[in-house]
Q: What sequence folds into this?
C-alpha cells in the first residue's frame, strides 16, 4: 500500500466505526497509546564468549535513551528491555520467549547475534513478533516476512572490495584469504562469482581457521603468486596476524578487509601496520560529520562514557535506529499501532538513511535492507571514506535475490 493512501484508509476506518458504533480496539501488546509508551526488547551476550559485544547493545540503549530524552518521536517513550543470553542460541529462544510472554514486548529490536537470531526466528514467527534490525548476517533474514536486517551478505561485501581493487585501483592480480566457516565461505561465494563475471581468476584463494594467528605460510603463497591486492575475510585478530606476516616478508600489496574490522580494536592489535588498509563497509566511518553519526558519538559519550567509539557501537546504534524509523513510519501512516501494521510500513521503507547506513530499502518479498557499500581506508590515524556508497555488483546482489 502506498504511503499516500494511508490517511484515506484511516479516515475510512473512522467513518465505519462511527456508523457501526463499534467499541475502540484495545492496544496491541507492548503498546500504551494513552501514555505513549512502546515496550521493545533484545537478547544480548552480557556473559559468554563475546562479552565485548556489550558495546553494541550499549549503543542501542543509548539510541533509545536519547529519543526518550528529546521526546522527538511525537512524545513517545521507548521502554527498551535487554536480557542476557550468553550468546547461546538455546538460551536466546528462552530469553525471547520471556521477553514476549513476561515483559510483553511489542517487537524485538536490535537483538544480537547471527546464530542466536536464526534460532529465534521459528518462535518469533509462531508468536507473531517482528524482528527489527537483527545484529548479524544470515541469508535467511532476507526472505523472512517479519525480519528486517541491515547487515549485508558477506559475499556482497567481498565483491565490493574486489570491484574497488579492479575498477578503482586498476589492479588485476587479486588473492583471497578467507576464514573457513560460514563468514568466509559467504565471502568466497561472492568473490568467486564476481571474479567470473569480470573474466578473471584469483591468483590465490587460501582458507584459514578462525583461531589462526600465524600467517607466515599463507603470506608466502600470496607473495609467490605475484598478487597486487589481498582481500581478507576474517576477524580483526586474523587481519592483524596477516599484516604482521606480510611486514616480516616485505610483501607490498593493497589490503582489503570487512567492515567490522574498521575499528579501534583492530588498531590496538595491528598498530601502524593498519595504515592504508581498505574496508568495504555498509556503515559510514565513525569519524563522519553526518548528523546521525555525530549523534552516535555524542550519545555514547553521554550515556556510556567508558565505551570505545567504533564500528561495533555504530552497528548497534544503526540497528536501533531502524526500529525508530519504522515506528515513525507507522505513526505517520495513521494506522493502528499493531505488529502487523509495523511490518506493512517497514515494507515501504525506500532509500532511507538509517544511523550509519544509507540507501536502506525493504519490499514485501525482498528484505535486503542494505543495498550499497562504500570503501573506508585507514589513513593518517583515521578511518576515512575514500569511495562513496555504490550499489553492490549486480551479478552478486541479483543472484542473492534469486536464491
A:
Amino acid at each position: 500500500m502506498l504511503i499516500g493512501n494511508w490517511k484515506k484508509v484511516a479516515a475510512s476506518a473512522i467513518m465505519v466505526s462511527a456508523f457501526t458504533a463499534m467499541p475502540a480496539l484495545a492496544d496491541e501488546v507492548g503498546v500504551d497509546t494513552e501514555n505513549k509508551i512502546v515496550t521493545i526488547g533484545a537478547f544480548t551476550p552480557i556473559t559468554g564468549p563475546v562479552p565485548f559485544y556489550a558495546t553494541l547493545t550499549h549503543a542501542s540503549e543509548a539510541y533509545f535513551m536519547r529519543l526518550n530524552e528529546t521526546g522527538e518521536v511525537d512524545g513517545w517513550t521507548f521502554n527498551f528491555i535487554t536480557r542476557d543470553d550468553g550468546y547461546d542460541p538455546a538460551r536466546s529462544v528462552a530469553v525471547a520467549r520471556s521477553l514476549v510472554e513476561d515483559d510483553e514486548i511489542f517487537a524485538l529490536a536490535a537483538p544480537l547475534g547471527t546464530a542466536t537470531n536464526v534460532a529465534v526466528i521459528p518462535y518469533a514467527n509462531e508468536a507473531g513478533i517482528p524482528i527489527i534490525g537483527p545484529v548479524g548476517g544470515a541469508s535467511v533474514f532476507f526472505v523472512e516476512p517479519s525480519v528486517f536486517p541491515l547487515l549485508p551478505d558477506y559475499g556482497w561485501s567481498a565483491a565490493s572490495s574486489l570491484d574497488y581493487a579492479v575498477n578503482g585501483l586498476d589492479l588485476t592480480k587479486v588473492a583471497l584469504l578467507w576464514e573457513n566457516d560460514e563468514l568466509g565461505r559467504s565471502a568466497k561465494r561472492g568473490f568467486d562469482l564476481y571474479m567470473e563475471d569480470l573474466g578473471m581468476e584469483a591468483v590465490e584463494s587460501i582458507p584459514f581457521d578462525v583461531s589462526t594467528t600465524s600467517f607466515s605460510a599463507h603470506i608466502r603463497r600470496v607473495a609467490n603468486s605475484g598478487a597486487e591486492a589481498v582481500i581478507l575475510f576474517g576477524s580483526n585478530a586474523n587481519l592483524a596476524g596477516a599484516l604482521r606476516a606480510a611486514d616480516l616478508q616485505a610483501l607490498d600489496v593493497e589490503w582489503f578487509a570487512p567492515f567490522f574490522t574498521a575499528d579501534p580494536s583492530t588498531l590496538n592489535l595491528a598498530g601502524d601496520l593498519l595504515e592504508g588498509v581498505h574496508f568495504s563497509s555498509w556503515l559510514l566511518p565513525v569519524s563522519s560529520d553526518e548528523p546521525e553519526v555525530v549523534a552516535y558519538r555524542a550519545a555514547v559519550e553521554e550515556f556510556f562514557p567508558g565505551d570505545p567509539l567504533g564500528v561495533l557501537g555504530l552497528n548497534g546504534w544503526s540497528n536501533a535506529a531502524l526500529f525508530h524509523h519504522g515506528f515513525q513510519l507507522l505513526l505517520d501512516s495513521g494506522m493502528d499501532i499493531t505488529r502487523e501494521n509495523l511490518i506493512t510500513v517497514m515494507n515501504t521503507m525506500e532509500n532511507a538513511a538509517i544511523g550509519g547506513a544509507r540507501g536502506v530499502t525493504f519490499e514485501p518479498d525482498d528484505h535486503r535492507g542494505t543495498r550499497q557499500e562504500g570503501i573506508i581506508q585507514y589513513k593518517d590515524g583515521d578511518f576515512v571514506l575514500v569511495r562513496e556508497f555504490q550499489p553492490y555488483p549486480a551479478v552478486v546482489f541479483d543472484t542473492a535475490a534469486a536464491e
In short: Residues 1-24 have pLDDT under 50 and may be disordered. Residues 154-281+374-402 form a domain with the Rossmann fold fold (CATH 3.40.50.2300). Residues 311-333 form the longest helix (23 residues).
